[in-house]
């Protein structure tokens, strides 16, 4: 089932669609970190991520009249951001369109809580491990960058942004089965990549 805007968000959206810039700025403050983190994980370039984040909100404001409220605002916004990332890749000729993956997959991608814990692990929990945390985050970024774009986006949306399957399907304009497949395959590839660097992983994430 698709998540709809909550009452507070719905009011901000209604005011924004009526031209209230203060209301739209509240939406920007609410979601800019989420958009920036998605783009940064996809591209690995902080300056470019900031530019695309700005472009995302400009595009959202221009097309706000097309938002109907059948889903929450955040997935709609992240879809704009991901489309801008793909536009950037196409302009740079770095990536090519990926063929649709099979919609069926036996694995349950939601079962991989450890991956989400690893991606979002908190360095403040053990300040002495801050350098190791930085190395781990760089390793994770390299691992994400090695994934096919559609798998990378699906893993980021699920494990970092915490979106539901239905919301991810909305962002990616695809079926739930394809979402499950992309997450499962992306996680498997990321685990295989991380397994090559066991010494950098916290003990609970190492293979026996």
TrEMBL record:
GO terms for molecular function: DNA binding; sigma factor activity. The keyword Membrane does not apply. Keywords: DNA-binding, Sigma factor, Transcription, Transcription regulation. One of its GO terms (biological process) is DNA-templated transcription initiation. Residues 138-190 form the RNA polymerase sigma factor 70 region 4 type domain. Pfam families: Sigma70_r2, Sigma70_r4_2. Residues 27-94 form the RNA polymerase sigma-70 region domain. InterPro entries: RNA_pol_sigma-70-like (IPR039425), RNA_pol_sigma-70_dom (IPR014284), RNA_pol_sigma70_r2 (IPR007627), RNA_pol_sigma70_r4_t2 (IPR013249), RNA_pol_sigma_r2 (IPR013325), RNA_pol_sigma_r3/r4-like (IPR013324), WH-like_DNA-bd_sf (IPR036388). Belongs to the sigma-70 factor family. ECF subfamily. This is RNA polymerase subunit sigma-24.
């Amino acid at each position: 089932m698709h998540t709809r805007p909550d009452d507070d968000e719905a009011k901000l959206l209604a005011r924004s669609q009526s031209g209230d810039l203060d209301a739209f700025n509240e939406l920007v403050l609410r979601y800019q970190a989420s958009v920036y983190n998605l783009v940064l994980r996809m591209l690995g370039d902080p300056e470019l991520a900031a530019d695309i984040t700005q472009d995302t909100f400009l595009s959202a404001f221009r097309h706000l009249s097309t938002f109907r409220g059948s889903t929450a605002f955040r997935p709609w916004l992240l879809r704009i951001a991901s489309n801008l990332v793909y536009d950037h890749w196409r302009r740079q000729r770095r990536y090519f369109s990926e063929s649709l993956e099979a919609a069926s997959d036996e694995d349950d991608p939601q079962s991989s809580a450890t991956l989400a814990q690893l991606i979002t692990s908190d360095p403040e929990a053990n300040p002495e491990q801050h350098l190791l945390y930085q190395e781990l985050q760089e390793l994770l970024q390299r691992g994400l960058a090695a994934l096919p774009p559609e798998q990378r986006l699906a893993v980021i949306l699920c494990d970092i942004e915490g979106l539901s399957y239905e919301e991810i399907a909305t962002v990616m304009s695809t079926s739930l089965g394809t979402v499950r497949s992309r997450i499962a395959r992306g996680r498997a590839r990321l685990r295989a990549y991380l397994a090559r660097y066991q010494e950098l992983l916290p003990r609970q994430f190492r293979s026996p």
